């Protein structure tokens, strides 16, 4: 038995070479799958419900994939639609798909799988003890669940159900990246260890290729091994690059958790077949006694205005550890004075991030005691409203540009701002609230599927 899987890119909208996709189509895959989201870029996309990549970029990739699917007559599976996998993200990608179908005269059975969670249902599961923390999870309570936009991460089961019910195109909400590629092979009886390991290898497209690129990989999955190769003839894989990707984004380098169990790559062997292809064997899968779905939540914490500047005066730089704490205390008093006590300084966060010293690693930077001649400075003001954040940032920016330096007599300029005005409103700011799993009664409990037929005309879609 051989199952062929085409992974055209690491993220829908990130792009791929059309020649690479054509090569993949010529290899006659049984399924095309593509991830479309991540939490890598932070909580704003879940909290605000907006996609990261542009509509134009997503439409470009989706157009090629829908046409490839039509040529092959195989399923197309896309997960974590709209970056966060929220319901509006699924609807957004579905709208684009319908427009492409009308323009290209394509027909297909479409399944939309939604992953948003109702606050009342979350609170009920929390009371029943069916929401459990993962390592390093923040403390939560019922108010956290009610105030957060929460999605559940699906495994293969909702996708498989959609395929069994006749879906030719599956647009899923938040999903395990690997589940997108593992769903069909599991249905066809492939070895689970090899299936999950192949899925893990190709989940980011050609990210594990040399050089890494926004392009695709192709897998030949067989009974006791799988072979993987890049779609671009100019790219290559090595046993090292494939093995290294197995470690990517995992706390344990050999054990990779999925909703239904754990992929164990401890005994996996990676063998270079030639300069471009790698064979992998020996992976196993251990089913779990308890099925779980990861929960991701984001909530609004305020509105933000930023100010960007630079400092190139060693005397000023050396004084910053003492000057900035004093400046913050001054601004607390200033807030009380300017707003007549109507604004609590504790509701406003004023932060200075110094690029060139401590901005990335903080006190753990091994070079933090070395002399610095130039710093970039990012000032963020976060407040309950955008008006308040902007108003406070104006006097924070003004006063910060003239910090009192003891070594200088009279007025000194301390920060140079490249923009006028220096204040830039960022809008709403979100933070992640959950790092937990839910224990559902079935793998389908947390998800809802809607089927429709998309036809090759301007007629209305039929549900």
Describe the largest sheet: 10 strands, mixed
The tally of structural domains comes to 2
Overall pLDDT: 95
Got a strand count?
20
Strand order of the largest sheet: 12-13-9-8-1-2-3-7-4-20
Compact description:
The chain is α+β, with helices and mostly antiparallel strands.
Question: Tags for this entry?
Answer:
27% strand; 12 helices; Alpha-Beta Plaits; single chain; seven-stranded antiparallel β-sheet; 20 strands; 463 residues
Explained architecture:
It is a single chain. The longest helix has 25 residues, at 314-338. This protein folds into 2 domains: 3-115 and 153-292 and 439-454, no CATH class; 299-432, 2-Layer Sandwich (Alpha-Beta Plaits), CATH 3.30.70. It is α+β, with helices and mostly antiparallel strands. It has helices at 18-26, 44-48, 55-72, 87-104, 119-127, 142-147, 156-164, 177-187, 192-202, 239-247, 314-338, 386-400; strands spanning 3-7, 31-37, 76-83, 108-114, 131-133, 149-152, 169-172, 217-221, 226-230, 255-258, 261-264, 269-272, 278-281, 284-287, 293-311, 349-355, 375-383, 423-432, 436-438, 448-454. A hairpin with a 4-residue loop joins strand 8 (217-221) and strand 9.
